[in-house]
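Suppose you are handed a protein chain with no further information: no name, no annotation, nothing but its sequence. What can you learn? This example shows the usual starting point.
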Amino acid sequence: MASPNDNTNYSSRGRTIDIDAVAESVRANERSGLARAITLVESTRSDHRDLAQQLLLRVLPDAGGSHRVGITGVPGVGKSTFIDALGMRLIEKGHRVAVLAVDPSSTRTGGSILGDKTRMSRLAVQENAYIRPSPTSGTLGGVARATRETIVLLEAAGFDVILVETVGVGQSEVTVANMVDCFTFLTLARTGDQLQGIKKGVLELADLVAVNKADGKHATDAKNAARELAGALRLIYPHDAIWKPPVLTMSAVEGTGLDEYWDTVLRHQQVLSDAGEFAEKRRKQQVDWTWTMVNDQLLRRLAQNPSVKAIRGDVEARVRDGSLTAALAAQELLDAFDS
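A reasonable first move is to predict its three-dimensional structure. Written in structure tokens, the prediction is:
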């Protein structure tokens, strides 16, 4: 493997790619170079994967300096409106803001988040903003890998706020929570049982909860919802926790509560830093990600192994007809892989 300081041109299927030149264009925040670099890390081609790792080695010393914030929410909560409003407020404060999406459905639809560039209409035209649709990398694992590596590139390009949005529900929330510093759960004021339908697991992931659309006739309902959610969170978090997720109310449409939201994100980082947990959290995320990559690559190698391929159909058929248990089937496949 080449040293990250080697001035080397790499060939990719007949085309020569100057990794040093691409890295320099990223550091200079040249839009075309940044887009090219992100396309490279999103690619699933093996030759592109090798090139992407060389590129990441070169820009890694310039990365790590951003606020990484994850945002998820219930359907209809207005995530895009919130991100648009928050991004504009942060740009006014002198920040450079990037928005990424983790969308498992994009592996089937070819990038359903593309519409967010129109929903984030103000942010999309800002010089100090960058909006990237979810990559179509075939699996949630592929989307997550590309998103993590894109964060490194954006930080090297000088973006100091990275907003990572989940699209849809489920495993993507866990995935995003494991790549950001502060994970936000957006919800709505509702009549009746406010907590009904909100998964406890999402609240356990959240560092900050915000009730959006707290305006007009919904303002009082939003305050009541915030009280209920705060009570639920007290049951989840121990009394001695160094950080207990606060519940805020805001209106992205009116722009109210955005400053308090961002101040809370910064306070969360300060509390963790003072306790020595912020840097440790990032280090742990890197180690966890390493093992996730190991698991993904082992599964890929297992599926591509000729001995496994030869018996896979028969093993699956016997599991279906009940003549083989799942545990014994797994052992047969692993024995074939090891042989």
